[in-house]
Amino acid sequence: MSVIKSLVEQRIGDKRYDEELWRFEYRRFRYLKNISGAELHARLRAIEFNLIYLLSAARDAVPEAAAFISSWWWLKKRVQTIAEYETRHLTPPILSCEASVTTHPPFIPKHPNASTFAVRYGERWWLEPMLHQGKVRIAPASSYDDEALADAQKDNELSKPHYSPGRQVQITAEDGRVIPVIGDVEYVRPTRANYYVLCAANEFDSRLFELFTNAAGAPADACVVIWDMDTFAERLERAARSELESWFFHHNPVQYFDPRHIEPRQHVDAGMSKDFAYAYQREYRFLWMPLKGEAAQAHISLDLGSLADIAGLFATDGSCIAGRASA
Fold first, then answer.
1. Which residues partner with 43 through β-bridges?
2. In angstroms, rounded to a whole number, what is the distance separating the alpha carbons of residues 237 and 286?
3. Burial state string for 25-62 with b = 16 or more CB within 10 A and e = fewer than 16
4. What are phi and psi for residue 24, nearest 5 degrees?
5. For residue 135, which of 76, 129, 304, 316 is within the disulfide window of CB 3.0 to 4.6 Å?
6. CA 121/CA 136 separation, integer angstroms
């Protein structure tokens, strides 16, 4: 039995697994009608990859209305994507994934997306100076749009496109004529200017080490776990103040969205939103947004001072190497 099939069968008897309703909703609003076969395949793979990383008892307890935080939302996305295959008289492919399902993390947040701590995955040689001297480098958002980066890292962080089926959109010319829409309408929410960002995760997952590789393709071999988020943010903001005095600093967990079906009242923001294909990372971000026409240029190195009182250096097995071992 495949990993995905096993995960689904564990939940298929639960009343919250409402395949009949999900299929009915999709028949009423076939939002995948116009995507190509390659896009449909990539979508199914992204959904099933995320299912393996995200499905858990804690996320089962979260209602579907909470979107990407809930197991049921992901299961609905899978059912509706498979429904599109069936509408096209195609058989959904069986996708392979080498990730393990059971990870037994050494520590977990109070609830999914709680962000009670942050995890910075990387290499020990630069994580040790981060812990002991507070050496932190923040990056221009544009620097992640780089083919040399690993798949888990590269993305266009300045624009977050999403789509609506053309039949749901009415475009009217100045003279009142209705212009027919062919295909899907693409919406782009670009940020006003390049910004600075420091990325982390809000959960420890040993499977993520192998996805965050360096330029030579070697996987991450350690992580820094920040236990006191508020104190870290205060030190980070203070250290950056001389370089980014007039910039707006804030930090939040990333909000993931389905680019083919935005949830009601969901706001897509170029800095704090990401395509749901990346949701397995459970990202937490520290950002500096320009307010006076500036734009991020080169990387900036910051000195925060020792973080050993609020953070710890951990090995891939979750054992503490140095610094603070727990919350």
1. none
2. 9
3. ebeeeebbeebeeeebbebbbbbbbbbbbbbeebbbeb
4. -60, -45
5. 129
6. 13
In DSSP notation, 59-120 reads: HHTS-GGGGGGSHHHHHHHHHHHHHHHHHTT-PPP-------S----S---SSTT--SSEEE
Region 176-197: mean pLDDT is 86
pLDDT over 90 for what percent of the chain?
82
Conformational region of residue 305, where left means phi above 0, alpha means psi within -120 to 50, and beta covers everything else: left
- pLDDT above 90 (res 97): no
User: For residues 275 and 283, is the Cβ–Cβ distance under 8 A?
Assistant: no
The per-residue b/e assignment along 5-20, b for 16 or more CB within 10 angstroms, e otherwise, is eebbeeeeeeeebbbe
Are 211 and 138 in a shared domain? yes
pLDDT in tens, 191-240: 879 999 999 999 999 999 999 999 889 999 999 999 999 999 999 999 99
22-29: average pLDDT: 98
Burial label, 135 (beta-carbon count in 10 A; 0-12, 13-18, 19+)? middle
Domain of 311 in residue numbering reads as 118-160+188-323
Domains of the chain: total: 2
Average pLDDT, the chain: 94
